[in-house]
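User: Hi! I'm working on a homework problem where we have to compare a predicted structure to a textbook description. Could you give me the structure for the chain below?
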Amino acid sequence: IMQNLDNYSEDDFEALDIMVKRMEKAAASNLHRKVIDIGADFHTLLVADSQNVQLNEFADSLSRKLHILFYKHWGAVYSPEEIGQRHQKIVAALRAKEPYLIERTVREHYAETGQKIAKLQ
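Assistant: Happy to help. Predicted structure tokens:
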């Protein structure tokens, strides 16, 4: 993500904003699969321009694993509003173009979900 901060266009940010709203709306309607699918698209767009094959593979693998667990437990992990807020926080960090903020935000995004799911197991 960080090596391509200038590659994000306003259209990319608008697409991410729309995905966040769609995820929140789907979560509010208990459309679990739709939340997962939109979330996968969101995370794919985050690394879409990266030439780092390992980053792309790692992001895809991590997203798939967390989404499998998230699908089963998401209602107990986050409210629809929290789903939106968490993803909007990533978009805001990208817009700020501050590498350390982006890294911290993305790390916290994944770590928090992992920790919450682990507590449910």
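For your comparison, note the following. The radius of gyration is 14 Å. The chain has a mean pLDDT of 82. Good luck with the assignment!
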